[in-house]
Amino acid sequence: MVDVSRRTVLTSALAAGAVAALAPRSASAQPASSAPVALTGHDPVEVRWLEGGTPAALAAGATWGVPWPRGALPGDQRFALATASGADVPVQTWTTAWWPDGSVKWTAHAVSGSAPRAESYRLTPGTPARGEHAITVQEDPGRIVVDTGVVQVEFGRHGDKVVRAIRRGGAVLAKDGRLVLQRQDVADTDRGAKVGFEEFAGTVDTVTVEQSGPVRAVVRVEGKHRKGRREWLPFVLRFSLFAGSDGVRLMHTFFFDGDEDRDFITGLGVRFTVPMRGELYDRHVRFAGPDGGVLAEAVRGVTGLRRDPGAAVRTAQVEGRALPDPSTWDPRVTSRLHWIPAWGDHSLSQLTAHGFEIRKRTGSGHSWIRVDAGTRAPGLGYVGTPSGGLAFGMRDFWQLHPTELEITGAASDEADATVWMWSPRAEAMDLRFYHDGMGQDTYPEQLDALEITYEDYEPGFGTPYGVARTSELMFWALAATPTAERFAQLAEANATPPLPASSPEHNHSAGVFGSWSPVDRSTPARAAVEDRLDAIHRYHLEQVDQRSWYGFWDYGDVMHSYDADRHQWRYDVGGYAWDNSELSTDLWLWYHYLRTGDAAAFRLAEAMGRHTGEVDVYHLGRWKGLGTRHGVQHWADSAKQVRISNANYRRHYYFLTGDERSGDLLRELVDSDRTYLVLNASRKVDGSTGEYDPDPTALPLGTTTDWGAIAGAWLTEWERGGEEARDRLLASARSIARLPNGWVQGGTTYDLATAEFSSGPDKSVSVGSLSSVFGLVEVMTELLDLVDEPEVEAKWVEFCRLYNGTRAEQEAVTGASWGSLNLKQSYARATAYAAVRLDDAALAARAWKELRTGHAGYPDDHDWGTRRVEPPAVLHAVDEADFSTNASAQYGLAAIQCLALVGDRA
């Protein structure tokens, strides 16, 4: 007889349902409204570029999100866009979220880089204008062809040529777009006498057209890297193309599923072959440098020679134009052209955040010659001729080092242009755990070590298997070698893609994202709080650069705690190192942006979201759906938790930008409650050993930290049209409200099939300070704004009122004191919420007192300034302050919500 555990049976049964629940939905899908509603309409909304001004170029096009008040517009509303002066702008719209009544909540919009540009636009309900060009998509059994009206991009449905060709005006400007991967079997730092190298090709499994115009088309490609019988490193690619544009935007995501002790990646990139037409002196290379700089090179240079071909010839080559007929040159040059070296290979490598180097050579087998160097390259290159070529680049090029732009074979009939997301010139990628365990073989030893380094170690848990990384790449099929000015404009668009955005005032008026309000300095008390919010945000923003928190796996995260003795963040001290979203740093940064509309705030939150949603979370393997607690490496800690993978941290970016990859991350988490079938999160506390075989009807899933994260995924999926997620969200919330003590009831278990919690009939209390600091307060605020659930609201408000209440108040309601709880300043926002729901002025005053007192945070008399520390006390001059990331995040969230809820009591 085969022994089948309860976990196996239920996992198999749920897997089939999960496939259906997570299937991609069409952009037009929307929930059914329970009854017709009277729609109020909406005035035009002003949209401005995030960084201000009018960008000279876009990254092929731009997409952004706009929220709408409940009941204002129908769920299938169409929109028109115009410049402030009234010029029509073709726009494509799709709905990304609906209110419970079926009215539209969030829309995403797309404009092309060829559309009229202005400082501001008016987005209004109406019929979108038609442009000169419209995207067309042709699907055949073996290929997909997207025509923007300027370029035609052909995608293969199988094989290793992801993009078969990019054509413009009938000519192939680039072809054989493919993924390249190199690995070796030992680390560079441990090389022995023998090292094995391999190269893999990314091969296509499935291709899907996710959008087909008229302004924007999106093609999704999935596959794996293969060589011989081995296939690994799965990838998801999204190509975005825009009507009338010659640009192609690529979102490249890969998932690490190798053996960290044997698979050391030495190169990871995307490569195109570029046909090279014409004479060697009419072939051009361009690299972008800092501050708008451009390096312009020719494969065969005719400037600086001993003999002068003529001013017209020299000028044309420097500008990238076709050179005059050689018969017009000085014959002393034309008769000797064959003696001038042809520089066929070029490279710009950015191996650190602080320096790049450009080199070139005549070809394989010959030495590289140093050309120039600099600090931070914006990450754009070009190879081609006056009749066309390919510009290719990568966003966050220097931030995500080690990177490289490489051109090879430009002196032959075909050049290869490669964007290396991991440069072959760098040390091989080493993802091994950073220590040997130090004898921590048992739970008691591991818990004892936790007491000194704050690292929760367990053998086998510090694995990178299943983590991911997403990079944004750009390609432009240009009709000619660009001028230096135009190339610099493209480089800027590549480095910081222009993004339209609606104002904080409009976003707030739409009633999205719970309790927040735009910046208000109308009173001295408000102004004081605003100054403090600015101070802590500015400090952490500046620390990113001062402490060089950059690198392929690190960029976007910040450190957890500071070591004042060393004047250094605790990068090497166990659980005090990388923050990994601990205590909702992501949420704080997003709410700061929502209030201020500040571009730097958005970019900081964006980088964090890209990192924490990919690197700190498992997307494959046994812990899929879980994130990793803070540590020296992003995957090092043995605490794998939904509070880190947390959908509440991904929602803002998805709705504000319409970014499909973020949408994937959110949908991944809809079934994250199933992870409690495979991992006992309390194993060290209860001393569990042996096989974990839980009862699916009585899982150890918590009603606060755990449920709050899962509830965020369900809420988002419901907004996106998932009625099953709505049912599970409400069933679970109602079941918690029915518990004798609601969110603080002890001894609860969770039924995976029904999404309901249960406990014994008697009141008991189990509550911790971390209960609501991972998004629970925020998701409950949004949920209770959406539904009429008096019992749920009453129980939640009770929790909010009692957390910072007196022992007597807690005992009177729940039968016991809640003990000596921590993070009282953080819970000032819970008190403020209860004050509003209960219309209780005394509670409002109490909330401000809790915020000002600053328990486990920043009291009013805290030192809000910074101190400059100069060498030789430090390696280089830095600023330090009495701030920690946890305290800043929780103070920020508490202050923002107190201002929004009870600001009149400040």
From TrEMBL:
Name of this protein: Tat pathway signal sequence domain protein
Keyword Signal: yes
A UniProt-annotated Pfam family: PcRGLX_3rd
Region forming the signal peptide: 1-29
Domain PcRGLX/YetA-like C-terminal alpha/alpha toroid residues, every copy: 497-905
InterPro entries: PcRGLX/YetA-like, PcRGLX/YetA_2nd, PcRGLX/YetA_3rd, PcRGLX_1st, TAT_signal
Keyword Signal included in the entry's annotation: yes
PROSITE patterns: TAT
Residues of the PcRGLX/YetA-like N-terminal RIFT barrel domain: 44-125
Annotated source species: Isoptericola peretonis
Record keywords, A-Z: Signal
Domain PcRGLX/YetA-like central beta-sandwich stretches: 135-491
